[in-house]
Each structure stands twice: as structure tokens, then as C-alpha cells.
Design a protein that fits this description.
Elements lengths: L12 E2 L1 H8 L3 H10 L5 E2 L5 E4 H14 L8 E6 L3 H14 L3 E6 L2 H11 L3 E4 L8 H9 L8 E6 L3 H6 L8 E4 L4 H25 L1
Parallel strand pairs: 4-5, 4-6, 6-7, 7-8
Antiparallel strand pairs: 1-3, 2-3
């Protein structure tokens, strides 16, 4: 649970929204980690939660250590993007991450559905404005698939919140980033998914 006092040791602090941005997770996840004691926090006199940078740095250091695990499973990442130049840039960026990631690409929503069905990706990064079937239609179809209920979907779009809302909005469990593509944040998302995959494997192994 969050501490209800100001830390005695001077330590830069951030808000829960900033912590979520730095760690590449939702604010809901940050609050869950706070409740479980995974991440330290305290409250201001006005009742606002603050998280010390030292706690965030500890999590980031743990992630770096986990990445050295030789048994870390490969993650399948599906990119659905109609812009050829952006697809090529993303391929190069992902290759330079040095992570066990297999990148699959699709050029529109229809192709995205086909590739998702074939490869069962752990993470999908999708544009919204695409020809033929757009990202909104594709995401709705993906969420109807029982085989992809655990797939993490990330939207990277040039559309603003008003434009997205006018199209019916994105599901609550879909994270939306604005273009230009925030590759540093996407790398954190992929790392988080890698570690989740590893934890699930270990949990399943322990229950056998």
C-alpha cells in the first residue's frame, strides 16, 4: 500500500501517470503494483500519489537483468501499417533493440487479421487510418477471437482524441500513442510483454 508520509530521504518523485509512461504500462498497472508493494509510493498532504525515481530505476534495472536470461522466450510482434517507409524504419529499429523478437508485418487490416491468425502474436502495433479495412475494424475483429484474448494491442496514430472518439473510440484495453512513433516507449511495452510471457511459463511449469 502507498505510504502516507513524505519520504525522509531526498529522492526525486514522479506522478503515477509519468511512472506509467516511463515503464510503458497503464496507470491501472501502476496502481496494482503499488497495492502489491512491487513499486514504492507515498501520498502528499493533498492525497496525491507520488513514486520515487529510485523505485522506478530498480524496476528498470531488474528488467535489464532479466533480459540476460538465456531461456527468455521469443516474442512475436505484429506490425500493421500501410506506410512502406514506416514499416522499413520499424523493422530496423526493432532489429536494433537486441531483444528476442520475431517481427511480422501486414499492410492493412485484412492482412493484419490473416497474420494475427497465422502467428498468434503476443503484441500487435497498428495504425488506425488504413485502406480497405481500417484499424478500428481490425481491432474489433481481433477482440472477437478467442485465440487472441491475451494479445496486447498498441495503436500508433496521427489521429487525435476527438477524431478517434468520432470513429467510436478504441477499446479500454488498447493503448494509444500518437505519431511520430515513440519507439522508446514501444520497446518498454515489448519488454514488459516478454517478462509477462516468461512469468506465465514459470507459473505453468510450477503447476504441472
Amino acid at each position: 500500500m502507498p505510504l502516507s508520509r513524505t519520504p525522509e530521504i531526498a529522492d526525486p518523485v514522479v506522478t503515477t501517470s509519468k511512472a506509467a509512461q516511463m515503464l510503458g504500462v497503464s496507470q491501472r498497472t501502476i496502481h496494482y503494483w503499488m497495492e502489491r508493494g512491487i513499486i514504492k509510493s507515498w501520498k502528499t498532504a493533498g492525497g496525491h500519489c507520488r513514486i520515487p525515481m529510485s523505485s522506478i530505476n530498480q524496476l528498470l534495472a531488474k528488467r535489464r537483468e532479466q533480459l540476460q536470461d538465456p531461456d527468455l522466450l521469443e516474442l512475436t510482434l505484429l506490425l500493421v501499417e500501410d506506410d512502406e517507409n514506416l514499416r522499413e524504419i520499424t523493422k530496423a529499429v526493432v532489429a536494433n533493440w537486441g531483444l528476442p523478437v520475431r517481427l511480422v508485418v501486414a499492410e492493412d487490416g485484412y492482412d493484419g487479421l490473416i497474420q494475427a491468425g497465422l502467428h498468434k502474436p503476443e503484441v500487435i502495433i497498428a495504425d488506425l487510418m488504413m485502406p480497405a479495412m481500417d484499424g478500428f475494424q481490425m481491432i474489433r475483429a481481433l477482440r472477437e477471437s478467442s485465440e487472441l484474448t491475451r494479445t496486447r494491442i498498441i495503436v500508433v496514430t496521427a489521429m487525435d482524441e476527438t477524431q478517434i472518439a468520432a470513429k467510436g473510440g478504441a477499446p479500454d484495453d488498447v493503448e494509444v500513442f500518437q505519431k511520430p512513433t515513440p519507439y522508446d516507449r514501444l520497446k518498454i511495452v515489448v519488454m514488459e510483454s516478454l517478462f509477462t510471457q516468461q512469468r506465465n511459463r514459470r507459473t505453468n511449469a510450477n503447476t504441472v
